[in-house]
Amino acid sequence: MSTTDELVQANAPDHVLEKIRRGGPQLDQATLRPIVDQAQRIAEGIRRDRHRDTWDFNRAIARQRDTVLAERDEVMNGDHATVEVTRRIPQEIDRLASASSPSTVASLARDVALWCLDEQWCDHLALLTEIRDGIHLQALAGVNPRDEFHRIALREFHGFFSLDPPMSRGCAGAA
Fold it and tell me: What biological process terms from GO does the record include (predicted)?
């Protein structure tokens, strides 16, 4: 590897790059090896930090996803969706029930509930993405960005199922 390699140029500290510029082609292998090794260690550290940050940010989302998937499974396999949709739009369900079978009504109620749950989850993910995109600014306020992201993610998810699950906030009138 040479000192003109992108890895060295992008990751070596400024004082080392200045040493390379001053020494030029006269630098021997004994001098070059530690420079390249240091640049490699810096690049690996940066990559590890990015990986750790990505993992940390996704940890809260993964837990929330597990909770939503459990609710989704309950909607798929239980009768909660039919009860909830009937509670919200009783006249429409009565008309549908008089024109079709109970299994058709249950299937449609399940589809509506799943659609609403999926829409709410997509909205939640969009919000978390927006928060994550700007969370680094919290460091300027002396706050740990990862901790703040988790705090916000938990706060936002806290009410996820509170508005008559499994129907979402946006589906309250859509059903």
Answer: protein import
